[in-house]
TrEMBL record:
It comes from the Bacteria. Residues 1-20 form the signal peptide. InterPro entries: DsrEFH-like (IPR027396), Sulphur_relay_DsrE/F-like (IPR003787). The lineage of its organism: Bacteria, Pseudomonadati, Bacteroidota, Chitinophagia, Chitinophagales. Keywords: Signal. This is Uncharacterized protein. Coiled coil: none annotated.
Length: 137
């Protein structure tokens, strides 16, 4: 009887421990605004999350009018973007289609910023993988 109880307890607890190990904290931020207050908000939120959850995976999907957030000559948060990228606390992904529409070349982006073919697809893919989603207004 005792042996059966141990086996049953193990079978019940194995999935619980497996879920606990696979529940990494992952968040994707969706930003389309050229409002610098929104840019600052994203950085503040990312820093807060990374301080409380150092193991968190954070990403910002940038498209539409938000390109200025990561452009060398326009960004007011350039140092923060580069710091977060360099320290592997976050990744910044810019939509190639948006860049094309705005005639922006990758050389105009801050170091550490990556380009993805389509930001919407990037967001949907991350959500499909279980990432949390935050729309930044």
């Amino acid at each position: 009887m005792k042996k059966n109880s141990i086996i049953i307890a193990a079978l019940v607890l194995i999935p619980v421990f497996s879920m606990a190990q696979s529940n990494a904290y992952k968040v994707i931020f969706d930003i389309t605004s050229d409002d610098t207050a929104a840019h600052k908000t994203v950085i503040r939120q990312m820093r807060g999350i990374s301080q409380s959850r150092p193991d968190a995976q954070l990403e910002v999907a940038i498209y539409g009018n938000a390109l200025s957030m990561v452009m060398k000559d326009k960004s007011i948060i350039a140092e923060a973007v580069q710091e977060l990228s360099r320290n592997k606390k976050a990744s910044f992904k810019v939509c190639a289609a948006t860049m094309k529409r705005h005639n922006i070349d990758k050389s105009q982006l801050l170091p550490g910023v990556d380009v993805v073919p389509d930001a919407i697809f990037e967001i949907v893919s991350k959500q499909h993988e279980g990432w949390g989603y935050i729309k930044v207004m």
